[in-house]
Amino acid sequence: MSEEDVRYRKVRFAAWVGIIGNIILAIIKAVIGVMANSRALVADAVHSASDVVGSVVVLIGVRAAKLPPDRDHPYGHGKAESVAAIIVAVLLFIVGFEIALGAFQSFFEPVEVPGVIAIYAVIFSIVVKELMFRYKYQLGKKYKSEALMTDAWHHRSDVFSSFAALIGIGAAILGGHLNISWLVYGDSIASAFVAILIGKMAWSLGKQSIHNALDHVLHEEDTVEMKKAAASVEGVLNIDEFLAREHGHYVIIDIKVAVEPSISVEEGHTIGKRVKERLLEEKNVHDVLVHINPYKKKSN
């Protein structure tokens, strides 16, 4: 089995873990949230439900990214993961807005004190979500899956939102027992705070995904070893230009190398072929486009 196949299987499995886990959590939190009259827990359930959609989008994006190059996509479909990450970020923002709107409206309605059972549901959610975040984050980092990394942070946002819900629900319950009216609104305040956290994370993840989707090239310090590898090929006198473009989880290199002007076209082609073969040995390099230039000595 190739490294690409292993990567696809691992990332696909992680996406399914997210889908199944989030469906279970969303149902538990929604049912208990309604039973316990907790607006914050219901908002948290909606957040988990959005995670299901996010994981499905990741699954589709990863599958599309694995497709081989074709006539319309000669560089492959690696950016499908970036597109999937952008969609997940947009979904996060929409969910955050809906939760914020509900929280705002709740301040103008009669508020009921949530039941204690809501606290247990939130604690359970925090533990499960943190485990899912760590699992997906490590896997996404290992296999350079932007979509999986975004989905992992989606889970981490759920941890933050659940923690905020925990504080809000606790404050509302305490306010009900001590007859402190303003504390009863802790549940609604927590819901609004959850919305702000979700919106902030959506903006950060979306910004990074869009940046990567726009033919981002690796920085100078990230290409040092690649340049050394190309320069080590016999016959290469200088590297005139070197661009390493991120295309999803892999890299495509455009390189211009200078060779002795007096050699034949065939000899120049052979040197270019060796440069390509050498660079393809580098990790995550998917394709190399080599242009041969005649070497010109720099005048003093």
Any overview of this molecule?
Belongs to the cation diffusion facilitator (CDF) transporter (TC 2.A.4) family. Keywords: Membrane, Transmembrane, Transmembrane helix, Transport. Residues 219-295 form the Cation efflux protein cytoplasmic domain. A three-stranded mixed beta sheet has the order 1-2-3, with helices on one face. The protein is elongated. It is built from eight helices and three strands; from the N terminus they run αααααααββαβ. It is mostly helical and 300 residues long. The protein folds into two domains: 3-213, Cation efflux protein transmembrane domain (Alpha-lytic protease prodomain-like), CATH 1.20.1510.10; 220-294, 2-Layer Sandwich (Alpha-Beta Plaits).
How is this structure best summarized?
The chain is mainly alpha-helical.
Topology:
Elements: H1 3-35, H2 39-65, H3 80-106, H4 117-142, H5 146-178, H6 186-213, H7 224-231, E1 238-247, E2 250-259, H8 265-279, E3 285-294
Parallel strand pairs: 2-3
Antiparallel strand pairs: 1-2
Membrane topology: Multi-pass membrane protein
Domain Cation efflux protein cytoplasmic: 219-295
Pfam families: Cation_efflux, ZT_dimer
